[in-house]
Amino acid sequence: MGNKAAFWGRHLAAWRDSGLSQAAYCRRQDVSLPCFGYWRGKLGTVPAPSAQALLPIVVSETSRSVDRIEVDLTNGLQVHLPVDMDVAQWVPLIRALLRLLKTLSDQLGMSEYA
Known about the structure:
This protein is mostly helical and 114 residues long. It contains four helices and two strands. It has a two-stranded antiparallel sheet with strand order 1-2. The chain is elongated, with a radius of gyration of 18 Å.
């Protein structure tokens, strides 16, 4: 693998592990989004799962009554949802919280939370 292919291969692997969108990863790493897309296609790397992807659910304790559901996000944040909350409200709520967090982190220059 040539130097450029190795360089982009490392970025593609890091992007997949980051959980970020392609645009967010490229901004954070200060690399060209069009070049990133070119090398993703050239190296045959599949895109990271979208927000609509199914993710595994881990049930840690089944013997006790549950009053809330905890969701661990890829950026390390936790969301606690009441168990009686309508499932259709979860995704919009989490997306709204992530947008708010990104806005605040951009304003404060704290890109590690975006």
